[in-house]
Here is the input.
Amino acid sequence: MFNLTTIVGFVAAFCTTISFVPQALQTIKTKNTKGISLLMYSLFTFGTLLWLLFGVMLANYPMIIANGITNVLAIIILVYKIKYK
Amino acid sequence: MFNLTTIVGFVAAFCTTISFVPQALQTIKTKNTKGISLLMYSLFTFGTLLWLLFGVMLANYPMIIANGITNVLAIIILVYKIKYK
Here is the structure.
């Protein structure tokens, strides 16, 4: 399982997920979603859900972990965007 | 090639890439990178490069297309961030 390809995938997953978390937590904390486009963020959230599904279909763990975390955070932000417009 | 899994992957690639493009083009057009953290954006850009490499290693076209486009835009924004701080 831990061949070079899988390692590259896990490092990729780590980098993009970690880079998304601070901004997501900041948005969740402040509830300030003014800079976010509802249409574009809906598309992004739906996209991460499909990447997660794609990862599950391929049994690709880096994709499942990265998109699982990102999707949960994106859904919370999207709910805030709709709730506190 | 065009089975259900590949279709899910291409729709996922379309959604996350399209949702990233307007914000990226806006940043490139205005050269305003004040809201961007250099550390987090460097990590994101490196991450998309690794996802691209991971996609190439797996010969996974949705991953290659999505991360290829996102990585090029992210590199341009990162150069602007460093140039116009």
